[in-house]
Amino acid sequence: MIGWEDIYKVLAAMFPLYTALILGYGSVKWWHMFNSDHCDAINRLSCYFIMPLFTFDFTTRINPYKMNYRFLAADVISKAIILLAILLWANFTKKGNYAWSITCFSLSSLNNALVVGVPLMEAMYGPLGENIVIQSSILQFMLWIMVLLMMFEFQSAKRSLDSGASSLESATNCESTNVDDKSKQTSLLVIAKIVGLKLAKNPNSYACSLGLIWALISNRWNLEMPIIMEGSVHIMSRAGAGISMLCMGVPLMEAMYGPLGENIVIQSSILQFMLWIMVLLMMFEFQSAKRSLDSGASSLESATNCESTNVDDKSKQTSLLVIAKIVGLKLAKNPNSYACSLGLIWALISNRWNLEMPIIMEGSVHIMSRAGAGISMLCMGLFMAMQDRMIECSAKLAVVAMILRFIVAPVTVAIGSFVVGLRGDVLHVAIIQAALPQAIGSFVFAKEYGLHANLLSTAVIFGTLVSIPLLIAYYVVLNILL
After folding, report:
1. Cα separation of 253 and 237, whole Å?
2. Which end of the chain has fewer CB atoms < 10 Å from its terminal CB, N or C?
3. Rounded to whole angstroms, how far apart are CA atoms 81 and 75?
């Protein structure tokens, strides 16, 4: 029987992910720390460096020789049911068409398996749940995303053939930034005010102080940080070493001198953040105020970035050979497409001959992969904040998207699971992982190919927000009924 303690454990696993999401959203909407160019840069960092290693890291954890092949068969059966239903709808109904078939397949098949699924399933069902959802993500990366890309490319080639010319897309982003007027007075009071305002907007200035205060309190009264608070901090802090080379001191000293070295370098960083960076900022601001007085006017900076992107001409031939070539070239440029394959190859080799990953290689992967969950949810928050509206499409389409994601997907997996004879916790995990929120990649593909991106945007944003109560409901109901 599910108790409140079990539900709290699930919430504790999910809450840190949403902390990262809120930080991403707030950094754009409330604190105005990032503009669209900054968000694009963070997304590219996540897409091309962090997520491939994140995928590789999780893939290497499984033993391919002990995978649950019944679950994999159930997943294949569920997708076959979806594809068959879409095929019948597209060919034998008046409203059916190929373009909407692609979107329906994307909504009912691609979920956020690694970022949301792994911590959630681990909290619900332990190592079994984690192992199943990783197997599901492997199948998704190696098969279903490839199927979706083939469908997209076929649609693109067909559209090109029908129009008789390749489509061109151009995007122009113009932005101008204004520097706040600075007072001409260079008194210490004015400088202190400027410094204070800038430091108040920079969490690095007081993060160390808050950490020291908590360390003093917790060690004085032997307190432990609440799990929700600890997880919320860790989900972002684990990204630190991979994102900033300034953090190299801690892992380096720990490797050289163990806990003693780590402790010393942390003390040094506390002194640096609490004293010397403040002195440096005071010097910078004093110089800035003095320069402002000398010039007699505040400086204005404007930047205009104009770029236009040309989409490569598509061949008018819609043969499978041409489509496969286009897909292959695009996938070759994206490390996410082969990170999973490389991880699976290593898992096969290491489990076959009982090999361990060399420490240098393991550390190189972990330094970036540990940032995966936090940065992915941060990027989700950035994406949400950059949208004009939470729901970019009509309410009717939004409801259809939610039905496909949270009802159709788990129901088809349940059918496939019963066909192959899955029972117990494995059946529960199979159904719940199918109801995970929409994969961010599905929106990326839809935007790139210009096909119902507004609907996928809504599915990603709204689905992520409503997923917690829905997934907990599935968790409770399944444990009561099955």
Report:
1. 18
2. N
3. 10
- Is the predicted pLDDT of residue 401 greater than 70, yes or no? yes
Whether 203 and 289 share a structural domain: yes
C-alpha angle 74/80/82, rounded to 5°?
105
The answer to whether residue 240 sits within a structural domain is no
Q: In this structure, are 219 and 359 located in the same domain?
A: no
Whether the per-residue pLDDT at 457 is higher than 90: the answer is no
Domain count, the chain: 2
Q: Please give the C-alpha separations between residue 453 and each of 105, 151, 448, in angstroms, as whole numbers.
A: 14, 15, 9
CA atoms within 13 A on the CB side of 444: 14
In this structure, the chain runs to a length of 482
Domain hosting residue 349, numbered range: 4-166+313-481
Instruction: Supply 285's token pair.
Output: 């601001």
Amino acid, res. 466: V
CA angle centred on 334, ends 122 and 120, rounded to 5° = 10
Domain end: 299, 321, 342, which one? 299
Task: Give the 3-state secondary structure of residue 438.
Answer: strand
CA distances (Å), origin 274, targets 68, 211, 264, 282, 329: 52, 11, 16, 13, 50
Angstrom distance (rounded) from CA 379 to CA 20: 9
Would you say residue 140 lies in a domain? yes
Domain contains 197: yes
Calculate mean pLDDT across residues 228-242: 69
Residue ending a domain, among 235, 269, 299, is: 299
Q: What is the pLDDT of residues 353-378, one digit of tens each?
A: 999 999 889 888 888 888 888 887 88
User: What CATH number did the domain enclosing 74 receive?
Assistant: 1.20.1530.20
Instruction: Note whether 406 and 430 are same-domain residues.
Output: yes
Supply angle C-alpha 218, 220, 224, rounded to 5.
Answer: 25
The model's pLDDT over 376-396, given as tens digits with 9 standing for 90+, comes to 788 878 888 887 777 778 889
Amino acid letter, 264: I
Q: pLDDT tens-digit profile of 66-116?
A: 888 899 899 999 999 999 999 999 888 888 888 898 899 999 988 888 778
- 347's tokens: 């898992």
Could you tell me if 152 and 124 lie in one domain?
yes
